[in-house]
Amino acid sequence: MVDTSGSIKEFEPPGVDNVELIKTYLRDLVKPPIEIGQYFDHVGMVAFESTARTLFDLDQRTTLDSVIKGIDTLLPYPNGETNTPDAINLALQVGGQWSVCLPSMNALRLRVFDMRVLEINSF
């Protein structure tokens, strides 16, 4: 889950691009030792501002390169509010669908990026 609301750009220190900072962090986060693939780790992304939207689902990007390309599509919404509850609900819905399809899936990890990192583990 990535905050793309207006506050991301609004509170940038001089000379810092917060969106690029988030993208760099996300790119580093999905690099090995994480193994992305059909039978390995799955990565999905929900972006949120006034509303939440799925940028890519857990089954759409099955290689590291495709996940990085998805991260690179991330754009800020200059006037959007920060609607974290909608993003959490959407991410849990998407993850919940997968737990039904994959009974062996024993954990869903959500990371919320709004210049702070909040981890939510659901088992």
Report on the structure:
The protein has 123 residues and is an alpha+beta fold. It has one domain (2-122): Rossmann fold (3-Layer(aba) Sandwich), CATH 3.40.50.410. The protein is 36% helix and 19% strand. The protein is built from four helices and five strands, in the order E-H-H-E-E-H-H-E-E. It has helices at residues 6-10, 18-29, 64-72, 84-101; strands at 2-3, 45-48, 52-56, 108-113, 117-122. A hairpin with a 3-residue loop joins strand 4 and strand 5 (117-122). The radius of gyration is 14 Å and the shape is globular. The model has no long low-confidence stretch (mean pLDDT 79).
List keywords for this structure.
4 helices; alpha+beta; three-stranded mixed beta sheet; two-stranded antiparallel ribbon; 123 residues
Strand content: 15-25%
Mean of pLDDT = 79
Could you list the spans in which at least 5 consecutive residues all have pLDDT below 50?
A: none
CATH topology: Rossmann fold
The helix content, as a percent range, equals: 25-40%
**Class of secondary structure makeup:** alpha+beta
Distance between the termini: 18 Å
Q: What's the CATH class label?
A: Alpha Beta
Question: So, CATH architecture?
Answer: 3-Layer(aba) Sandwich
- SSE arrangement, N to C: EHHEEHHEE
Structure summary, number of beta strands: 5
Q: How would you sum up the major sheet? A: 3 strands, mixed
The total of helices stands at 4
How many structural domains?
A: 1
- Subunit arrangement of the protein: single chain
| Integer-rounded radius of gyration | 14 Å
| CATH homologous superfamily caption | von Willebrand factor, type A domain
Q: Note the overall shape.
A: globular
